Amino acid sequence: MRVVLDTNVFISGILKDSIVKEILISDSFDFFMPEYALEEVSKYEKELIEKAGISEGNFNLIKQLLLENIEIVPEEIIKPYLEKAIKIMETVDIKDSPFLACAFAINASGIWSFDKDFLNQDEVRVFSVKEMIEYIY
Questions:
Q1: Contact 104, 28 (CB under 8 A)
Q2: Which of 76, 97, 123, 125 is the most buried (most CB within 10 A)?
């Protein structure tokens, strides 16, 4: 199953030892993220490291481990779908448009996010942690 990851799920996988991290490193899904997600992570990296109480080295090590199981979708691939995504998300949260555009571009089964804003659109399915667990087991 092809699933687009929202940044909040990826960050959770980096910061916490949890079922989220287990799912992210499993081979049960094909995970994708737009390049934009990596920009978001980089923008807040210092704050995230401080919040997690881990070293920069450990942060980067975990990030790289997770990225081994995630395909980064270049901006030029999602660009043709961005206008449609912006129209859908403009009244919800326009910053989430790249994730919706990514889902369109790769013909994803859905988006895995903790952000309830995605539930205010009906173009792409939004998966919860519970649904991701149920799919595996």
A1: no
A2: 97
- At residue 72, what are phi and psi to the nearest 5 degrees? -90, 125
Amino acid at 44: Y
The H-assigned helical ranges of 16-128 are 19-25, 35-43, 45-52, 56-67, 75-89, 97-106
Amino acid at 49: I
Closest CA to 84 of 102, 59, 62, 65: 102
Quick one: average pLDDT of 126-133? 95
pLDDT per residue as tens digits for the range 47-101: 999 988 999 999 999 999 999 999 999 999 999 999 999 999 998 889 999 999 9
Average per-residue pLDDT in the chain?
A: 94
Fold of 2-136: Rossmann fold (3.40.50)
d(CA 121, CA 131): 18
Report in angstroms the alpha-carbon separations of 60 from 20, 28, 65, 72, 88: 18, 24, 9, 16, 34
Question: Where do we find the tokens 């942060």?
Answer: 59
Domain ranges of the chain: 2-136
